[in-house]
User: Fold this.
Amino acid sequence: MKMSIQVISRMLVLCWLFAPWPVMAQDKKNEGQNPKQPFIPRKQTKMPGPPLAPEEALRKITVPDGFHVEIVAAEPDLVNPVAMTFDERGRIWVTESFEYPRHAPGPGRDRIKILEDIDRDGKVDSVKIFAEGLNIPSGIAVGYGGVWVANSPDILFLEDTDQDDRADKQTVVVTGFGRDDTHELPNSLTWGPDGWLYGLNGVFNPSTVVKDGQTYKFTCAMFRIHPRSRKIELFSEGTSNPWGIAFDPLGQAFVSACVIDHLWHLSESGYYHRQGGPYPPHTWKIESIVKHQHQMAAYCGITYLDTPAYPESMRDLLVMGNIHGNCLNVDRLHRNGSTYRATGENDFLTGNDVWFMPVVQKVGPDGCLYVLDWYDRYHCYQDAKADPEGIDRGHGRLYRVVYDKIAPVPSGDLSAKSNQELVAMLGHGNVCLREIAQRLLSERHCKGVLTELEKLVVDNSTPEKHRLHALWALISGSELSPKFAKALLNHANPSVRAWGVRGVGNLLADQAELSKKIIEMAHDAHPDVLLQVAVAAKKLKGVDPIPVWIDVLASCGNDALIPHIVWQNLHPLLPKKSEQFLQLIEQSKAAEAPAVVAILPRVAEKLQDQ
Assistant:
């Protein structure tokens, strides 16, 4: 009897071990995950289910009444997408990464694809591989004869010299970006209104870039690169893991960030709150522009929604991807002196699928919002590090959100348009087309249309968006003449004056007459102008910036941003200029001005450390 019980017990164990149905079910549940250590991913309440087919995932997405979502591209045409942009022909350039989360630099399996909707029906018909051998290409921009790619430690410039849609020449523009945290690599390459190429880097990704005899050591920062000189600058520092740059119609820069507050207005030379790590001595940090939160603090991508393809209620909003919330959050901007505050709006899109990861959002040439979806069960690097085999490497989607009552309008090939036609497009309702037209004019040095652009800028009957893009075309094309700059500085429109100051500071800093005018503008009534005077003061040749900054502080009232910008530029000079600064404060009787009162304790602290 004893032997029979043992035999039966062994048979039962063998049947349990080798029975096909329970093992298959368990394998199916853990498909793609580490079977030795199954776990619930961060910020998720349960084990994620299997991936949904593109059409099934599409059916789960919800958007406001009157909108619907369409699939533009999906696997196998699009896999592991990270970054995207549109070119002047309406084509979509996407980077794909199979190497993520690899830390080691060097050649990899990643690539750049060109997606094209040939028949203009909203779906991709042609897929071409433009470049291979990359290693987590985390940002992409097209312009000035090639393709700019963030491929840490490098920013690359790829060229197609024989026009076959394959890169055949590669140049390292700058190098020295880190790879310590592959969620915080250099990213979000975006053309700014001034014609520079802007990008971001994260707080836990130390970088050391040496260029033109200068060394830049930084972590969380917004940097910019000039497309012709290849010069690099740090535009501002701080935040956390910023990923996504948007410019509003006035040319102001906004980024989304993770963990800490989600929305930031970045100004040149500003130093912002950091998620972690030390601040440089005597930093007076600048805070975010929000007091509200959305679902969970993990953001990726941002765009300024400015398009005639959507109703008025859905224009002039900032849209950000929330990868833990699996949705698109919306904020509305309100002016606050020289800066902004933002308030939350209802979500624009919800994936209703934990795999949905909106990493990029951009207004396309047809006016629709395009949403790039990484589509993975793991959202955080902690999960990717804990279970690298569980990272999905077989999915990726690109959607567009269409408003039912306004048909999307394909733009055609902007590269075939004349400069006169491009000037007209600077006033288009679609921000994507305005920006591309401006870039093309800059690349062409505004040839044959300089006078026309200048007239547009100073014509009070021209809508402001059209005027500013015309001005930015001149500035980004380095076609700002001293005579016209003088007219800008005297203009009635404060945005034109502010950009006039910025243009002179960057392009005409050696013009004594213009510098004299900017010194006088330290008493301007508009905070946008005062902010740009504060930034430009140190750039002007032969100008002592300290009296200018004191006048700006005396003029700016209780502005929330300007004193911080003045301080970041002023305090490095104080060890040698403190006596002059204090004397000028006393002589100007500015000591009671709110901004001076705010800054004086910091001056005292700085002097104590001398």
Remarks:
- Residues 2-18 form the longest helix (17 residues).
- Residues 193 and 251 are 6 Å apart (CA to CA).
